[in-house]
Amino acid sequence: MPVSPRALFLDRDGVINVDRGYVCSPEQFELVDGIMDLCRHAVSLGYLLVVATNQAGIGRGYYTEADFLALTDWMCDAFRERGAPISKVYYCPFHPEFGVGVYRRESDCRKPAPGMILQAAREFGIDLHRSVLVGDKESDIMAGVAAGVGCNVLYWPKSGRAQPPAATLASQTATHLADVVQLLGDSQGT
Ligand SMILES: [Mg+2]
Fold first, then answer.
1. Is 13 a catalytic residue?
2. Is 113 helix (H, G, I), strand (E, B) or coil?
3. Confidence band for 164, pLDDT divided at 50, 70 and 90
4. Are residues 178 and 37 in contact, defined by beta-carbon separation less than 8 angstroms?
5. How far is the CA of 2 from the centre of ligand 1 (A)?
C-alpha cells in the first residue's frame, strides 16, 4: 500500500516573499532569503510543497482574483524552473469585516481556521502528522495546529521585529529558513 505523502505547508507573504503588504505583481515579489533552498531540500526528501495564503487584498478590492492568479502562475513557474515544483496554492479571498460584496463573509478557509490545509490533505492524501508548516504569524500556526500538522514552525527573522510571542503554539521558532531545513530531516518517519 502506498505511503501517504507528507507536505511542507508554506504561508506566502512573509515566508515565500518579503511581506510588503498586499503584494500583487512580480515587480513587488522579493523572495525571502533561503526559501528556494528550503523548498528544493523538501522536494528531495519527498515532501509536497503546498502554499496556503490568506488574500484579503482580493476581498478588500486592492487587487483582483485574476491579478492574484497571474502572480501565482508566475511564482509557480519560478519555483518549478528552480527545481522546487509547488503542488498547489490555496488561497482565501474573504474577510469578515472588510470584504466587499461577495467577499465579505466568514470562511473556514481563512487562517487561523484550518480549511485550506484540510482541503489539501483531502486532495493529495497528505499525512498531516508527518508534515511541517512554516508561517510568520500566530494565525498560521493556529491553523496548522487545528489541522493536526505535526510540526508548526514560526519563522521570525531577527531583523525588524520585536520578540516572538511568548505564548506561541509553534513547535519551533526559526530566525532563518535554513533552520527549517534541519527540521525536515528530523520530522517523524524520515
Ligand atoms: Mg504571512
1. yes
2. coil
3. confident
4. yes
5. 33
